[in-house]
Specification:
483 residues; alpha+beta; Outer membrane efflux proteins (OEP); 2 domains; four-stranded antiparallel beta sheet; 11 helices; disordered C terminus
């Protein structure tokens, strides 16, 4: 009989090696063998800190500050700590729990109860104080791996939370760079409008002089004044856009609005758009895109929770023990006679629960199917983002080059129209049309230059730039902060 507890323990440890439920296997990715516009990717380099490719120190400084101080990223770091604590708790469930107890209980027995009359009859004292000190241990033996599957799920959830923070860091970096480029675009367009306003003012002054000498008609004066006021009115939304982007950048880097105004208010050229760097292999999206990696980790967690649910089909064994001392007085509390000990084993088995376990397993499998669909959707969305971003970047290159040639031609035509008007060869309408067309195309060129650079940011972001799988270099300023 003495061997029975040992045999029971050996059997428990042997069965504890079993793990029910499906082992996770990454599903096949629904991806094409190559990108349609793969030629737009610079595969020779793969700098995680892609914003340095714009060769603008202010972009670098702003993005680095945003990654360090952005409030959304601070929340992401807090979520990582919460998930890490949950993973620790799930792992601790595999180990025995040990606790200490201590108590002092005073009892005064009623004389009017059956027990009280008996104690009075035999001369036992009416009151007593009992002291007890001991330790308790308990352990649920993970016979069929349900707790281990729960630990797997918690670790996968932690990994997904960490990758979500990486995805947010990529988003913050891209949004900061985008805000900077948008600011420079507004400033460039405002400079074009200011130049045009000065030109219109000079033209209006010239027409007024010609009118005063009786050479021009009054309607020509009114048309030039109207054109001047129209240009001035168009400058108002550009100034408002500049203010909005200044405030946007301040908040992104974690500062109150107005903090970086002096540093950014001076106009600078829109940075030249670089070719996005990275791999042209679509399969690399499964590793480079943090949203795809996070979805895949959640799929793995859902798979593990199927095992947690299946484990309830099988018995659950728990062991417990108590070792301590108890006495009616403190003098002999630690004597050999005061020692008390107990041990036990408990079995819990849901043999018949009207299909509840079946429903729980079916629900777990349903959530796994949902996570699988979400992962496949994230893969397809990532591929769509890449193709769209590369196509826009390619066409933005073409549009910008064409507009530059158009502006150069219109500048020559505008100068020729003014010379002809001064010489009385053409009417004012030709000059106004030339000015208007030049303004429109110049404004469009400033916009497209920024759109081209912003398309490069979208391409970097779509390719997963700025984040890589654990173990590889990630965002330089976040690798240590987000994990």
């Amino acid at each position: 009989m003495a061997k029975a507890p040992t045999i029971l323990l050996v059997t428990c440890f042997a069965m504890a090696g079993c793990t029910v439920g499906p082992d996770y296997v990454r599903p096949a990715a629904p991806l094409a063998p190559s990108f349609i516009h793969a030629a737009a990717i610079d595969t020779r380099h793969a700098d995680a800190n892609w914003w340095r490719s714009f060769d603008d120190p202010l972009v670098v400084a702003l993005v680095d500050r945003a990654i360090a101080n952005n409030t959304d990223l601070a929340q992401a770091r807090a979520r990582i700590e919460q998930s890490r604590d949950a993973a620790r708790s799930a792992g601790a469930a595999l180990l025995p729990a040990l606790g200490a107890t201590g108590a002092a209980t005073t009892l005064s027995q009623s004389r009017d109860t059956a027990i009280g009359r008996i104690t009075q009859a035999i001369g036992a004292p009416r009151g007593s104080t009992e002291y007890a000190i001991g330790t308790q241990a308990s352990w649920e033996v993970d016979l069929f791996g349900g707790v281990r599957r729960g630990r797997e799920a918690a670790r996968d959830d932690l990994a997904a939370t960490e990758v979500d923070a990486g995805a947010l860091a990529v988003s913050v970096a891209a949004e900061t760079a985008d805000a900077y480029l948008t600011l420079r675009a507004f400033q460039a367009r405002l400079a074009v409008a200011s130049d045009q306003a000065r030109n219109e003012a000079l033209l209006a002054s010239l027409v007024r002089q010609r009118f005063d000498h009786g050479v021009a008609a009054e309607r020509e004066v009114n048309r030039t004044v109207a054109q001047l006021e129209g240009v001035r009115a168009a400058m108002a939304p550009l100034r408002a856009g500049i203010e909005a982007q200044l405030n946007r950048l301040d908040v992104l880097v974690g500062d109150p609005p107005g903090s970086n105004r002096a540093q950014l208010i001076e106009a600078r050229p829109v940075p030249v758009a670089p070719l996005p760097e990275g791999s042209a292999d679509p399969v690399e999206l499964l590793r480079r895109r943090p949203d795809v990696v996070a979805a895949e980790r959640r799929l793995a967690a859902s798979n593990a929770r199927v095992g947690v649910a299946i484990a309830d089909y099988y018995p659950h064994l728990s062991l417990s023990g108590l070792l301590g001392v108890a006495s009616l007085g403190t003098g002999n509390l630690f004597s050999g006679g005061a020692v008390e000990a107990s041990g036990g084993a408990g079995l819990r088995w849901r043999l018949f629960d009207f299909g509840r376990i079946d429903a729980e397993v079916a629900g777990a499998r349903g959530r796994e199917a949902e996570a699988l669909a979400a992962w496949r959707g994230s893969v397809l969305a990532a591929a769509e983002d890449v193709e769209t971003a590369l196509a826009r970047l390619k066409e933005a290159h073409v549009e910008r080059a064409g507009l530059e040639r158009e502006v150069a031609a219109l500048d020559r035509a505008r100068g020729q129209a003014r010379e002809a008007y001064t010489g009385g060869v053409v009417g004012l309408i030709e000059v106004i049309d030339a000015e208007r067309e030049t303004l429109s195309v110049s404004d469009r060129l400033a916009f497209v230059r920024a759109a081209e650079a912003r398309a490069a940011i979208s391409a970097y972001r779509a390719l997963g730039g700025g984040w890589q799988a654990p173990g590889a270099p990630a965002l330089a300023s976040t690798a240590g902060k987000l994990r």
